[in-house]
# Entry
Amino acid sequence: MTEVRIDSLLPAEMATRAEYLGVRKAEMPFFTMLMLSILAGAFISLGAVFATTVAAGGMSVSGTDGAVVYTTGLPYGVTRLLTGLVFSLGLILVIVGGAELFTGNNLIVMAWASGKVTGRALLRNWGIVYVGNFLGAIGTVGLMFFSGQYAFGGDAVGITALRIAVAKCNFTFLQAVALGTLCNTLVCLAVWLSFSARTTLDKIASIIFPITAFVAAGFEHSIANMYFIPFALVIKTFDPEFMAKVGGKVSGLDGLTWQAFFINNLIPVTIGNVIGGAVLVAAFYWVIFLRRKDD
# Structure
């Protein structure tokens, strides 16, 4: 009689599942992979929308000229905690809804190291998924811009979006690599933990704490930044009336450029994400659970 188990998978079984899923992902047809990666870019962006809105905090209006005074009433750490908690929506949609996320797909390295996926297939997946994630994020940027949601809360959401983007464009290259490494270590650990799940609730519970931790700590996720920074750039470029009204409340806007987005953030953060996911998680667990004993 076949044994029926309802408990979660053990780490060795999780490694076998990661290897199996890596093969499936690498062999996925081009169109399916691209469409699922566009969805993932949009899903992560929705988590970023949620996080930006929560980070905007509360506000009140004072003064005869209607000047806006921004108050959160919460300590820094608590605000970061809440922001990270709601950002978890993005990876929950990816894992439970089914989508292809570049950062999570760094775990395909486990199947590659076992010789079940070729280097060409690995890079094909990463390339297609990365482009698809970018398309999904940029599509969400367009929708959010036309929605005008950034003017909600007396412009608090838009001001927060601008401040987030400015901060992300002011890292040094090495700092951005380090922040990206730490980020995707936690993201891939969240995906890794989800491999143990038997139910949807198990998956959600596995995701929430690692994702909340990386956002609360201020680590950098390349795909999320494909939304955060372009959204602020679109506001800055295409809504001069909004910028004339709130520009004085955001310092460092001159440094918010497309060049800074790619050079100061996206490129080094992506490098760090690969180090964190492919090396610090995938390679370590492969060595522990899947390496041949005679190696």
User: Anything to note?
Assistant: Residues 58-70 have pLDDT under 50 and may be disordered. The chain has one domain: 11-290.
